[in-house]
Specification:
Mean pLDDT: 93
Helix content: 10-25%
Family: Belongs to the TolB family.
Strand order of the largest sheet: 56-55-54-57-68-69-70
InterPro entries: 6-blade_b-propeller_TolB-like, Amidohydro-rel, Metal-dep_hydrolase_composite, Metal_Hydrolase, TAT_signal, WD40
Pfam families: Amidohydro_1, PD40
Distance between the termini: 31 Å
Protein name: Amidohydrolase family protein
Structural class: alpha+beta
Organism: Lentzea roselyniae
Largest sheet: 7 strands, mixed
Length: about 1000
């Protein structure tokens, strides 16, 4: 049973505001644990009352007030309010932005914590309020007009006036003293002013490579703002730097004559006459100590990882499972491919006699067509890059597919024609009945400033080249941009898709225009839609294959496919020159490691005959990469991905987000031994809010839908759950209360008091547009470090800026393992990055990130190594992360602990160690990684569960990629020239901690 809100607040020691009104907070009331005392704040903003007596700050996503001279802060808003950016108005009213209902809206509250009132509503975001000097108006920015523009709210009437609009991406408006003008930032590159009659003036343009934040009017109405450059943040007045040498946070300063109030270095400060005065504060917040879960290992049973099912015209079903393609016909399941490579995404020809699918057997995913009568396979329209998610045209002569860059193509006997520019992680194509339109799921953001939007239906008219986006429903997303639609019915009269976890069908015309309202078909979690004729849908429900008529009558289709773990390998004695057990300070020399039943039986001095001679090598525990996304580009990487992890000694990976059935299929295949690779612990799509970006985020808008998602997680055996950027705190809390597995997110607080188990990245993508755990210069302060160490929440750094180390050493980029096992296009990008010396990376941010992680680690916190691969490079990035840690303060042993013992502790499994009873997951390397961390990458062989993999064997399938001629490239359609700004490939810009 769910706790009531008041019960939860009481049990966790909070006495904050309740649903409609806030009250003063007595910190620590009715709690045994006194909580965590915060004396610094990371990326906090400050506002000052008109009488100069009070300050308001936003610390750990709540509004606090304190005397102007400093002292104990008093909390005004509760955790569910998720409140930031306070602005004092007359009468000591405080305006702020709140994300309570799943969109940003403006609220006001009194200094005494009373009179909480919501001022804006709806599906658009209203952000960054600023009271006018007379208190009658509030300036803010919002995306109501297709981009972020400056708006003015009349407080009395609620009327809103728009002052700027598209193509602006305005931020942080502030008023002039006379209340006639508003200064703001546009695109982080200019400081502009707009008057209430709409007249506009540009005051400042940022120099190349620099950004601007937090504009305000200073003395003499000069523009004041923060100028951010690599390694430096300066508070400016006009063209002069007023404050330098500090980590200025980039929020609007408060000028009082020639002195200025601002936030920097974790503190509230006055600057005047060349000197700085700190305003001390103290705030206490409750935390809940993490209780570690134990992850379960799969042991076998009915196959649940059924990926991409499709139905033929005569009722046969094809799908991927256990690293092979299968055909289900007349109740009998037959294996079609041998599972040596990555064969995926089958589709039937219109007459049901052929199957097109993608396979990487030639080295990269290409289209193959199988004759189901003869079993013969033939290449179809080969291309230089990857070809994925194919669909036959209604006449069977053409195939639509998506390449490795997200471009959509059509191929036939005459050649290949591009029909879209690069799209960001688009879905699988579908054809209109007459073959004149191709449609697929594609993201469309609300603005340039924030990347999230809705996943809509993108249709391409093949005759005119016209592109058109269609919302499946107002402000709603197709569930995932994978196999959740759109899917056209064979007769062309309907399109099916999944919204809010259930299937819908809408009548359409020949071009895909909606002719009515969508109608709900299923009431259970629905994934991977396929039409069964024109009057029924086949889909996946929590690992079951189901069929539903359009009037909602559902039944289960038996697949009759089981799997089991292979038997343990034979007993082996491995002779090594040295080993590190995962705990000791130094290596132990000349030992034999006895392995039985896949586990370490004994570690002893050399004795008798050895089965494996690694006497010139050092044995270390297999490494664990605790943050990657196997299927973010899984189709493009194919079977290579498991090999590259092993080749670099990574024997376990953890994914905090993947397309669910791709994930379950891979997890079962690895456990069953039908796919080579490391142990794989993972979750399905991250649970997100009303807006999404990545294709594997699940828009979740209610507790009822959340219950569906959590039931799916339980029945599919998720190893964890990740809640993502736009999920409101109330639903995050409900996920914690109702889930039985570990949870992580991109947020530290109130996650540390809700019972979350970890936070991904150092300062992840955040609905605020900035982080409260790390500043724009990459630094974290006492509040953040104390919350991590006190709560026990894990921290996964994902050090993207490790690329800066290429300036010193690019050996991992030129290594044969990288060259052979990376797909060609991925390797070209990686090598170019290395040859540029990692120019796009910032060494100063990397240093600050590592120092932050080191403070948490040495303070007793749990730091676990992760990479966010493939946004960073699979496997090699693990070693680049370890090298960055050592370069900036970790000892080699400390760094290795973050990739062995610590993530094993998070998983609750006896991994990350070489000791009796532990699984025999061992990396055999040249050198001493406790003395030189680079030696950890010098892997010569690797063992997983007692099975030895030689590097040569891992390379062999891709050592000699087959050369083949490619079909002609035809003139692209006009639609391919249309390049919406929001469809940048995910590797185009390595932003901090994307997901």
């Amino acid at each position: 049973m769910e706790l009531s809100r008041r019960e939860l607040l009481t049990r966790t020691g909070q006495a904050a505001a309740v649903a409609t009104a806030a009250s003063t907070l007595t910190i620590g009331t009715a709690q045994a644990d006194p909580g965590v005392k915060l004396t610094q704040g990371t990326n906090i903003s400050v506002s000052r009352s008109a009488d100069g007596k009070w300050l308001a700050i936003d610390l750990v996503t709540a509004i606090w007030v304190l005397p102007a001279a400093g002292g104990t802060a008093r909390k005004l808003t509760d955790e569910l309010q998720d409140a930031t950016l306070p602005s004092f108005g007359p009468g000591n009213q405080i305006a702020f932005q709140s994300y309570r209902d799943g969109n940003y809206h403006l609220h006001v509250i009194g200094l005494d914590g009373k009179g909480l009132r919501q001022l804006t509503r709806g599906r658009y975001d209203h952000r960054e309020p600023a009271f006018s000097p007379d208190g009658k108006k509030i300036a803010f920015v919002g995306d109501r007009a297709g981009s972020y523009g400056v708006h003015v709210l009349d407080v009395a009437s609620g009327a809103i006036t728009q002052l700027t609009g598209a193509p602006d991406e305005a931020a942080a408006p502030q008023w002039s003293r006379d209340g006639r003008r508003i200064i703001f930032i546009s695109g982080n590159t200019t400081v502009d002013v707009v008057s209430l009659d709409g007249k506009r003036e540009r005051l400042v343009t940022a120099p190349t490579g620099m950004q601007l934040f937090g504009a305000a009017f200073g003395p003499g109405d000069q523009p004041s703002y923060t100028l951010m450059r690599p390694g430096q943040a300066e508070l400016m007045l006009g063209t002069s730097a007023v404050v330098t040498g500090q980590d200025v946070f980039g929020f609007a300063p408060v000028w009082d004559g020639d002195r200025v109030l601002y936030t920097a270095d974790g503190k509230i400060r006055w600057y005047a006459n060349g000197s700085v005065t700190d305003i001390p504060f103290e705030a206490t917040v409750p935390v809940r100590k993490v209780e570690r879960h134990r992850t379960r290992n799969l042991r076998g049973g009915p196959v649940k990882g059924i990926a991409g099912p499709v139905v033929s015209s005569d009722g046969k079903i094809a799908f991927r499972a256990l690293n092979a393609l299968y055909l289900l016909s007349n109740g009998r399941t037959t294996k079609l491919t041998d599972g040596r490579y990555f064969d995926s995404d089958p589709d039937f020809s219109p007459d049901g006699t052929k199957l097109v699918y993608a396979s990487d057997r030639t080295g990269a995913a290409q289209l193959w067509v199988r004759d189901l009568k003869t079993g013969e396979d033939k290449l179809f329209a080969p291309a230089p890059g990857a070809q994925t998610t194919p669909r036959f045209s209604p006449d069977g002569t053409k195939v639509a597919y998506v390449d490795h860059d997200g471009q959509v193509w059509i191929a036939d006997a005459a050649g290949r024609r591009q029909i879209t520019s690069t799209l960001f992680q688009p879905g699988r194509p579908t054809w209109s009945a007459d073959g004149t339109v191709v449609a697929l799921a594609a993201v469309k953001p609300f603005s340039r400033r924030f990347r999230e939007g809705t996943s809509q239906i993108l249709s391409v008219d093949l005759a005119s080249g016209e592109l058109k986006y269609t919302e499946p429903m107002p402000f709603r997303s197709i569930a995932t941009r994978g196999d959740d639609g759109p899917v056209w019915s064979p007769d062309g009269k309907h399109i099916a898709f999944v919204v809010e976890s259930v299937a819908w069908v809408v009548p359409v015309d020949a071009k895909g225009n909606f002719l009515g309202e969508p109608r709900q078909v299923t009431r259970e979690v629905t994934d991977s839609l396929a039409w069964h004729g024109n009057d029924a849908l086949v889909y996946l429900n929590n690992g079951r294959l189901r069929k539903s008529t359009l009037d909602g009558k559902a039944s289960t289709i038996r697949v009759n496919l089981d799997w089991r773990k292979p038997g343990a390998p034979e007993r082996k004695v491995v002779r090594v020159g040295a080993y590190w057990d995962g705990e000791a300070q130094d290596l132990r020399q000349n030992v034999d490691i006895v392995v039985e039943n896949g586990c370490v039986k004994e570690v002893r001095p050399h004795h008798g005959r050895a089965d494996v001679d690694a006497s010139g090598l050092t044995a270390i525990p297999g490494l664990i990469d605790a943050h990657n996304h196997w299927h973010l580009r899984g189709r493009q990487w194919g079977a290579r991905q498991g090999n590259v992890w092993l080749a670099y000694g990574i024997t376990t990976v953890r994914s905090p987000g993947d397309p669910v059935y791709q994930m379950v299929e891979t997890r079962e295949a690895l456990a069953a031994g039908t796919l080579t690779g490391p142990r794989f612990y993972a979750t399905g799509e991250a649970i997100d809010g009303s807006r999404v970006y990545y294709n594997f985020m699940r828009p979740t808008l209610s507790k009822a839908q959340l219950d569906l998602e959590l039931r799916r997680a339980h029945e599919l055996g998720y190893d964890m759950i990740k809640t993502y950027v736009r999920l409101p705190v109330e639903l995050q809390r409900a996920a914690v209360q109702r889930s039985k597995v570990p949870l992580s997110s991109h947020y530290l607080y109130p996650a540390a008091n809700l019972g979350m188990d970890g936070m991904e990245h150092v300062g992840a993508t955040n609905r605020l547009g900035y982080s409260h755990t790390v500043t724009r210069q990459g630094k974290a302060y006492q509040d953040v470090v104390s919350l991590f160490t006190s709560s026990g929440m894990s921290m996964t750094p994902t050090l993207f800026h490790n690329r800066a180390l290429f300036a010193e050493d690019k050996s991992l980029a030129t290594d044969e393992r990288t060259r052979v096992l990376f797909p060609p296009w991925e390797y070209e990008r990686y090598l170019a990055d290395a040859n540029s010396g990692g120019a796009a990376s910032s060494a100063h941010i990397l240093r600050n990130w590592v120092e932050f992680a080191l403070a948490v680690h040495r303070g007793g916190g749990l730091v676990i190594c992760g990479t966010d691969a493939p946004l960073d490079a699979p496997a090699t990035a693990t070693h680049m992360n370890l090298r960055a840690m050592v370069k900036y303060g970790f000892t080699p042993r400390e760094a290795l602990v973050t990739a062995t013992r610590n993530p094993a502790r998070w998983l609750g499994l006896p991994l990350g160690a070489i000791k009796p009873g532990a699984p025999a997951d061992i990396s055999f390397v040249e050198g001493n990684p406790l003395a030189d961390i680079k030696a950890a990458a010098n892997v010569r062989q690797v063992m997983v569960g007692g099975r030895v993999h030689e590097i040569a064997d891992l390379l062999k399938p891709y050592q000699q990629a087959q050369s083949m001629s490619t079909t002609d490239t035809l003139e692209p359609l006009p639609s391919a020239q249309h390049k919406p700004w929001w469809h940048e490939p995910e590797w185009a810009e390595h932003v901090c901690c994307d997901h």
